[in-house]
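Q: I'm writing up a methods section and want to include an example of the input and output format. Could you take the sequence below and give the corresponding predicted structure tokens, formatted cleanly so I can copy it straight into the document?
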Amino acid sequence: SSAPYPPAAAQPSSQGRPRSAAARVREGGACCGSGGHSGCVTRPRHAQGNLREEDATRFAERLAAACSRALGDVADGILLNGSLALGDYTPGHSDVDLLVIVARPLADGEITALTDAIAADAHEAPACVDLRVVTREVARTPTPTPPLEMAIEIRPSRDPAFHVERGPRGERDLVVEFSMCRAIGRSLAGAPASDLIGHVPPDWVLAVGDAQMGDWQAIGDDPPHAQLTVLTACRIWRFAEERRHCSKAAAGEWALQRDPSLTAARAALRQRKVDPATSIGPVDVQRLLRIVRE
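A: Here is the clean output for your methods example:
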């Protein structure tokens, strides 16, 4: 689901080379979003094309309930964001993106309890999961690089499939997730996003998006992620023009209305909605990125 633009921390790709946020954020949490988080572009071992958005939503609600039981009163709120919140969930590609806001830094025992609660359900995940935890103070008063308390990832197609990262560490793309949650986040437990997350200046969101597009330009031809690159760039563009978060499909349609010559956007939408075998020309992708960054 996820679905923000993290810094260019290299991660192994399916092509055996490092990549920046290309895998972590194109799907889900960015706006502009992801959640971001990592886009789950590899179909999980047990996931099939007929999985419905409702299946992923029910699993998100199940995880939220598990978090609430594990953390008790320490959990101020659990927010669903990314593709599921935007109505653009695509089986085999989209993540389940959750932001957990806690009253204070977690003690070791609370981190263990939360980790165990999520791990107990990990084998049932119908998609990749990105769950991130921040404190109340961090969410209430955002900074350009908010510190992340901890993160839990479920990647059903990888070994190991379950990964926990403890903070605190600055995570620039959290400003995008905060902005998206304030705008479209769905509260699964606790207070609504508007009561938990402070104002995020749009310029911070756009700075993260621009840096991410620069990374994608440097990566060059990347066919497995071309659709996600194109449609996320369209989301950034629309946010720059209208200060509005929207789904990838809606952003692609919006971009084509502005400029019908954008063949990359047309091909990306066709690949997403009609024919997964549709090719997206790398020259067209680079042209779109240049237009959006101008």
